[in-house]
Amino acid sequence: MFNCAGTSRTRLTVFALSLLFFVGARAACAQELTYVGLTPGDSGSTVILSDLLTGFVPGVKVGDKVFSQFSYSGNGDMPDSSVVSVFGFQDPDGNYGLSFHGAFIDFPGGEPSQANLGFDVSVATDAQQQGWRISDAHLFMGGVGLGNESEISINESFAGVSQTLNVFSSTVTGQSGQTLSDWVDFDDPTPSLRVTKEIFAFAGQGTNLPARTTVIDQSFSQVQVPEPSAAMLMILASAWLIGRRNATH
Q1: At the topology level of CATH, where does 38-229 sit?
Q2: What is the pTM of this model?
């Protein structure tokens, strides 16, 4: 016998589930739309670091990467977050990231100046679903200037990862030299990272020039990692082909 009541309940259940899915999808889209797009070529805009710290701008999206949960602190002559600009960045190899522009500086006399800058970076949701993971990080320091017996450096670390990055410029006696770019290849590609930069600047006592850098560029490259089920199928297929090849000889 045809059960009208059961059919009605089924339709109501399907409708309710569809409505919940629609509301959830709209909420997810609304949350994603709050992130400012800074992809080079698509947008010429920039954001101020202080707006990212207060949550006025909750995060930015650059290409296939999303950046959020910014933190910053500085002492000595390091700039206030309100005068640090954040741009979207793409390195010569096409990898996306961020570029921080500000006067990270120490003036002659007194103690060194230091700042800490942190953020989360993750692969965008659509790229994550396709198996893309962060595999490398690249750090560049530009606009460097310093006098005698001075130095400026950036040490970068990643939460839960042993590898680090370091760039520097120094005129300190016995330690002079510079490395303005560095990169690291992660042992285990990951969908997200917590990045922390320690910026150090010291203008020597015998100089009237500040120690400074004005541009800090950061980019991340990625690899496509197959899902476990797909990887297992590939292994089984390879084993089957080897078995067939052996059986025919």
Answers
A1: Jelly Rolls (2.60.120)
A2: 0.78
